[in-house]
Each structure stands twice: as structure tokens, then as C-alpha cells.
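Batch job 17 of 40 flagged for manual review because the log was empty.
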Amino acid sequence: MAASASPDGAVTQRLVIENCALATVDAQDTEYATGHVVVAGNVIESVGAGKAPEGMPGVVRRVDGTGHLLTPGLVNTHHHFYQWLTRGLATDHNLFNWLVALYPTWARIDAPMLAAATQGSLGMMVKGGVTTAADHHYVFPRGSGDLVGAELAAAAEIGARITLARGSMDRSEKDGGLPPDFAVETTEGALLATEEAIDKHHDASFGSMVHIAAAPCSPFSVSTELMRDGAALARRKGVRMHTHGSETVEEEKFCHELFGMGPTDYFESTGWLGDDVWMAHCVHMNDSDIAAFARTGTGVAHCPSSNARLAAGIARVPDMLAAGVPVGLGVDGTASNESGELHTELRNALLINRLGAHREAALNARKALRLGTYGGAQVLGRTAEIGSLEAGKLADLVLWKLDGLGHSSIADPVTALVFGPPAPVTLSLVGGRPVVEDNHLSNVDEDALARTARAEAQRLARIAAGD
């Protein structure tokens, strides 16, 4: 392939990874027992079997991937970064009791706390192979500072792509909701702040590092007016929409009592089904619900560990996939998934879904990997850029070390990655730039990050206790 050059005649810099197994996760699930990838600038230039061609101009680095598997970067489709500061609390609660227990603490969060929590949450995911992450932030206490700006600045230091789902709540305790009154916004205020975040930060260009989505929190924490007007705002601005849906049986009961219909029908009545929408959890979906999601192209963020942690149930992922529903994986907040790593969700998605009706036929290793890569890109509306190793796509990729003791007797590399213990990340690139090298974050001091997160968690706990 001919070298590309800039207008001043400079040859494009190239990075070569070779001698590794490749799982491209393209439409044909192409794999190579031994192959290579050539990165030119911020995009993948070529993918193929065997070693990379010799004599290419502009090669500044060659990586020997012997003993490794190369995959697309993992895509996390649902998280709550701020919850990094409240891990390990309310460990024996279901969703509603867990929310009641933790909202009084979350309602005291401020910008420095969120910045530390973002780096803890995102840093842990990036160390585990995530290159793009969606965060649903919906807690905006009065006087807490510029939370959106603080989160995006902190994420930029880590170096991952982010979809910030600018959340909102306008139904507090006085309205029959769960959060404290001072932790919610007015309907008008939430809509104005969401529009401001879109106008200031959303970048729709190819290779963008920041997308903004409109994201009222859930049916039981927002008004119908906020749901409807939020959908209208998102479509007027051309951004995606995100919320929680059908997570628990209690939510199903709540929707029937308050709206006279189930969650999916309620979402459709407020404009919240469509190929620009994705919802977290979707555990309690009947055949009609799944058909509605498939018909409209509405996506699902499957969060198996969090669903188990909060005893929500087992989502019908095999049925969703069979119907054509877009499905990706989500860590969810680290107050309901303390490990905070998406690569563990590959394994947990496979194992937990085998406890459901489809048993051993529910998912296999390659379907799990597809959920965590291409499926996530599909849910976030970025399949033209990320989610598979293909020429022309962004160079977001992960080189997993599989030649150590933990994977030493598993012959198939994809099986080793999904079924085996967490694999160390030798190299992870976002747009061709390293974000992890030799299992350590490239752009931040991990020890300093841990100290800051611990200090902010302690400060939050003191404030919540009234000290």
C-alpha cells in the first residue's frame, strides 16, 4: 500500500503489530492464527495474515505480539463514574433499597469528587481493555460546580473516548421519588443544562473523543414531561438518548401503577424507542417488549454483574440477539459492580446467560466478545469508526497477553480471553495512541490516582455523615 503524506511532504507515521492471533470481529468474524495490523496515524491501514510487509515508509514502532491476541478495544455502554467513591456499601440490598441507602451520600458529590471518581472508574476500565466508555451521570446537587466539565477533563487525561450521557432527575422525595429534594433539578433546568452540555461539548466528527447524549435517569426518577421533552431535545440536536429500563420487577409495578402500562409501552408513548436510543439493563422484558425493541432498533446495555449484585434477574440476551436487538455490555456503576472492569463482563455475560432458558446454547466465547466490541459500538452509534479491526476504522485496539500461567493450557485464544482469568493488557491504543503499556496506564500516575480517589471518597463520607 502506498504511503500517505501530509501537504508538507511528511510521511505518515506507522505502527506495526505482528506475530499475534487476531480476532477482527468483522461481519465475517475473520480470525488469523498469526497475523498483523498496520496503524497509520489514527486509523487502521491494513489487517492480514502473517507478518506485516517489509519496507513500509514511516514505521516508527514494531510490536512483536507473539503469545498475544489482538482484538478491537472494548466498548462500555453503561456506567456511573461517580459511584467509584461509594464502593463496598449496601452490599446486601436490592435496587430500590440500595438507592435509598446511597442517595443521601451521592447527593453531596462535587466537581473534585467527580473528577477523582472519573479517573478511578475510567482508569480501571482502560487497564482492562476499554477504549470507549459511556457514562450516565444524573446527580447534579445544587452548588456542586461544573460536573460535566470536571468529568470530561478528567477523562481526557486518561485518553479514552467517552459518551457522556448527561442525565437528569426532576422527581424527588416530595414527588414520590427516591433522591433528596436538593439533589434534583427542575424540569426546565435539566433540559437547559442538557442542551448546554450538547452545544459546548458534543463532537460528531469522525474520530471524536466526546459524544454527549440526553439521558433522563429512569421512569421512577423523572417526570413524563422531562422524558418527552428530553426526547424532542435530543432529536432536534441530533444526539443519542439513554436511560434505565425494565431493570426490576418493582419498576414494572411502578409503571403500571403510575402510568397504567408497562415500561416499554411507556417509553414508546414518550418517544423513547428508536435506533437513536439505548437503555441499560432491560432485565424484565416479555416477547412483546423484545419485538418492540427489534422493530425500532432500540439498543440494550447488558450489565450482568450489576444485575446479579442487585438481584435484579437475568436479561433475555439470547432472545434479544435472535430478534435483532442491538446489545452491548456495561459495567454499570462501581457501587453495584465493585470490580469495575468490562473484560470480566465478557465472562459473566456468558456464564450468567447460561443459567437462563437457553442454558449452554445461550452464548459462546465469540458472541461474548462481539457483545463487548462491535455490539457496544452499535449501541453507541459508532460502528463506522470502532468495534472491529478493519482498514479505515479508528486504531482502537487491545493486545492481550495470553502466554502466562493463567492461560497456558487453553489452546484457542478467544476462549482463553473469555473463559480464562483476566488477561493482562500489553498494549492498548486509542486512535493509535497508547493508553496502556505493559498493564499500566500510559497517561496518568496510578498510585497518585488511587491516593486522590481514596481522599475524595473519605471527604464525601465525612460530608454525608455531617462532619
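Reviewer: the log was empty due to a logging misconfiguration, but the result itself is present. Confidence is low (pLDDT under 50) at residues 1-7. Unflagging and moving on to job 18.
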